[in-house]
């Protein structure tokens, strides 16, 4: 087969996939929702003061325009969540490729400002610093070079060192170079394309990983890729967490093929984006070099082998991380930058509990203790997190290494000093590869709804539309409740997946996720996607 024939065949398959997706009303409704979110992003909520949108859109900073943008965003969030619920793989639902769905949903917000975030402006400014030979880890952060790049960054992050790893900063530098040193396009289109490419990598790796652990590939893509939190925060917000997730997913995929050292190198690169990725070395090591099957060695010998493999993988990852850090040429300032995310108050449980106790102590007059109580709660939370990760290692790593990764990332996000909505995608990406039962799916969907409601409330508050924010939050929860009743309220659907949501053995064949053109399909309804 020639290259031309291969490309024509691939193009025909792609056209068929897009046609199949476009024929589904929920996919079209999700695309309209993304357009509404893109329009809502053109509002003062997360736009910097020097944004070119203020010159393009008249009266952008007036209360009527703020209210209009907030209303459009509310409808966009509700429609996107509803479309996502409707696409959950089940018996009687059309068979669509979730990767095509995400591509279509992303198109309307491709050129829009960042959605529900202004972090990408800081990414671009840090890349601009490196282009000018200035280290973003230095004191003063992006303010070291005053001008339009630094002015795009909100004041609280304008004077702090970069909190990201050296690979993340060098990628930011590359994006700035590729987009012609334009402050707006580098921070919007450039960073969003980077997030999109990263999620494409995740989507390419998940099906093979799902088959390895006996999970449903379509369900994994539905929850990990087409998830509204991913669409709004990771892709819409253009967060560099997407790069970390892509490198982790690629590391697991390479480990699944037995590439031990390559997997460790990719984990090191992911860690050089964000530190929590280091826990990925455990599943990478155990997938690439699994212990001998039962009967060929004792349980103790197999556990010892697992611990040895993880130790070797950890050493290799640390060495690779040091080499990568030295090659980036930015020094070790990321160590000091680890404290930067905790400078703001977030929904992290330890921070919230510490602030509650702090307010109580202030009321009682214990001001000296109150100043330190939040820091104490955060330190205790980090200690509990370390012991929690160790417990999860001994509980899950030996038999279900990917379960360990998902649960360890849950512990890290919940026990850390800072927690933003997009942090939940760290473990949400790998959760469908665990024991993703019907109950867990339902609870996870409620988690998505709560995150969306909270994110919209934050957005409305920054747009000075508190009343719309409260009403909208209740509307999002109500919409989630209605979809929950429709999706999970009735008796479980029959179908291919068993009670745990795992695929039956006969469905774990190599071609279980192979695309068949519409003309060859005997039935265009999903047969392996039920989650019970």
TrEMBL record:
Keyword set includes DNA damage: no
Topology of the protein relative to the lipid bilayer: Multi-pass membrane protein
Keyword Membrane: yes
Main localisation: membrane
Membrane-spanning residues: 30-47, 67-85, 97-116, 189-209, 221-254, 260-287, 308-335, 376-394, 401-420, 440-459, 466-483
Gene Ontology cellular component terms for the protein in this record: membrane
Subcellular location: Membrane
Similarity comment text for this entry: Belongs to the MptA/B family.
Protein name, entry field: Alpha-1,6-mannosyltransferase
Source organism per UniProt: Naumannella cuiyingiana
